Amino acid sequence: MSNTSTRSDTNTISQTSHASDYREVNFDGLVGPTHNYSGLAHGNVASMNHGGLVSNPREAALQGLAKMKALKDAGYLQGVLPPQQRPDLGALRALGFTGDNATVLARAAEEAPQVLRAVCSASSMWTANAGTITPSRDSGDGRVHFTPANLQSSFHRYLEPDTTGRVLSAIFSDSQYFAHHPSLPATPAFSDEGAANHTRLCAEHGEAGVHLYVYGRQAFGGDGVEPRLFPARQTLEASQAVARQHGLSDSQLVFAQQHPDAIDAGVFHNDVIAVGNGPVLLYHELAFRDEQATLDELSEKMPEPLIPVRVPLEAVSIEDAVASYLFNSQLLSNADGSMTLVVPGECQEREAVWRCIQDYLLAGNNPISEVVVKDVKQSMRNGGGPACLRLRVVLSRAEREALSGRVLLDDALYEELVSWVERHYRDRLASEDLADPVLAEQVLAALDELTDILQLSAVYPFQQA
Length: 465
Known about the structure:
Helix content is 34%, strand content 17%. The protein is α/β, with parallel strands linked by helices. The protein is globular.
């Protein structure tokens, strides 16, 4: 997976492409067949509040695909990433459960039900956590750089990086254009949650960018100001290490600490309290510990003027921000220079949030000209909104042509994926169903067919046995 060699002709590749050749591709994660509500994510209020409910994996996957299709139809480039292999029987065997698959599942259900729920999590749908990406326009060697997040903060997500790395390496396989790095050491000091804590700000996607890395705590040193109720999942040291891997310079970087009070209110990632696109940074008053210093440094380092769009606490409470996921929305560039904000349906259900969108964001002096509401309720109940469901990758025309597999959404692929979901997914999944060996067999059959549809190599453990 590792491909970290540098090129002597620094930025040669990126400079052969004109700025207009670059487009942002949103790679959404397909919701997996074991989508369930186990309340695994400590600090994620929605996940904890909905733990134990019966889920509908089929509806969840179709909701995700409908969002992808709508954005594709609106002219945005849309990609697809496959789900992970779940249940992770290899993880159960590593933890001492032996026997055939049915025996392993039965023993886990009886002896360690919480572990079984963790190895069945469909959390890889939230591809904003899959890794951190640096476009070729900014990287030290003119290639697109990828680092899978180690996600060490929670066991169910710690299981993802190996498969994530194989998937990214399979799709972005041409070493002329793409460079892949190993995940950071899976220790608390280098806790990394991926692009959910990273925002690239620029004039246009093909222009030079400044990278805002937001962290919750400092592992070595620091002043000890951290959240008290919920864990800070991203460290400064992890963000700095990823930036080094990708060859970014100090002039391209801003590191800002997330507000501890926001984390304690359920803002487990920065993308729950802020979203950026182009020169626009839409953020809540409690997004950053030192708001003014963050804005000042961004303004100083950006070649184009920063456009901060600040939502004050008096307009939207932190509770409403977390419940509605207003800031976990997709902010997308339009050809005319305006921007579209894609929000979850929950934003309409909170009066203060909807009023803020109409009277403050749309009527404000900023490029946001349109708000589109999407139903992703199955994902929202587990604590993931529209922005959680996508990994942003800025690619030149040549880089898009170098992609492997069939992962850019078109009408034919959409129809095939909908048909695939309807054939393989259940419309009801309760916690007790996770021990069903038939479910495990159904998942393997579905994933084997999916890799054929997406024209990917053997990315799953069962395909490599």
